């Protein structure tokens, strides 16, 4: 069975390029998923044409379709589009997602879906009102490596009883030498490490310490520290401690000031531990399992050649094809749960944005 989905890409930046790379590689491999890129929405036509050229979006790789470049408003009104991938900075997501949904488009919106929980709630309300599929693009949840790791840990119990998780997403961003108008420092753009990259360690704690999502999630409590820069007034260093009701704990960190450890995830159990490695801690492609004596007992590598966005794109295609309005792996309630946690962390540490 072939599933065809007509995409618009809203935002012509790096994250959109990585997403498009996977769609086109999928098309090159002639899988059962036909991801057709119909439109590139961006601030000007020249930028859109450059995006098409640089990402090699040719008719030969795109089912004989050459995408058009459109303004955001033109994209919203384009009747040939099934679903919009929103790859703009997160402070723009609220208005853009609602505009797509109100114009009859399904939406896959990059994380964080909004700046705070109340905005996310509104987006999901609009999606349901208009009968449109909507999902936060937490791509990490859809990697085969995650499915395999959970199978080894929670079905085969290779590391015994799970007790503790360390998860980090950090990089040395030379913050001091960036202008205050930089996306990394600009408070009006909802900058800071928590929303931009801290969401990933939180996501790993949700994936690896709880087998349930959204409304069925296991209860947990959290405490946190953010270091707020005195000049740009946003966080560039975050530490979060989580404790689930069954006693499992997680230490989660993010930073734009220092590089993170090679093993960005470490999951510890009574009979061993797991380490995950990647050039990008959001990209769950490689893990090793070690026994109690430190001997490696299992290794998994995703050598598919995809960046990893294809897994969530295929999941979206399946759900839309089957008439679903949300995804069971990343339901609306899970997005709201994580957004609520980040709201609490910011409140605990005195970090606010205009959207609050």
What does this entry look like structurally?
The chain is of the alpha/beta class. The chain has two domains: 3-138 and 309-324, Rossmann fold, CATH 3.40.50.720; 144-305, Dihydrodipicolinate Reductase, domain 2. It is 32% helix and 26% strand. The protein has nine helices and 14 strands. An eight-stranded mixed beta sheet has the order 8-9-10-7-11-12-13-14, covered by helices on one side. A hairpin with a 6-residue loop joins strand 8 (220-228) and strand 9 (235-244). Helix 4 (93-102) runs parallel beside helix 5 and helix 5 packs antiparallel against helix 9 (332-349). The termini are far apart.
How many helices does DSSP assign? 9
Ranges where pLDDT stays below 50 over 5 or more residues in a row are none
Mean pLDDT: 97
What structural class results from the helix and strand content? alpha/beta
Helix content: 25-40%
The radius of gyration is 20 Å
- At the first level of CATH, what is the class of the largest domain? Alpha Beta
From the N-terminal CA to the C-terminal CA, the straight-line distance is: 46 Å
* CATH architecture assignment name of the largest domain: 2-Layer Sandwich
CATH homologous superfamily (4th level) name of the largest domain:
Dihydrodipicolinate Reductase, domain 2
Largest sheet: 8 strands, mixed
Q: Strand order across the biggest sheet?
A: 8-9-10-7-11-12-13-14
What series of H and E elements makes up the topology?
Answer: EHEHEHEHEHEHEHEEEEEEEHH
Query: What coarse outline follows from CA principal-axis ratios?
Result: globular
Total strand segments:
14
Strand content: 25-35%
The figure for the number of domains is 2
What name is given to the CATH topology of the largest domain? Dihydrodipicolinate Reductase, domain 2
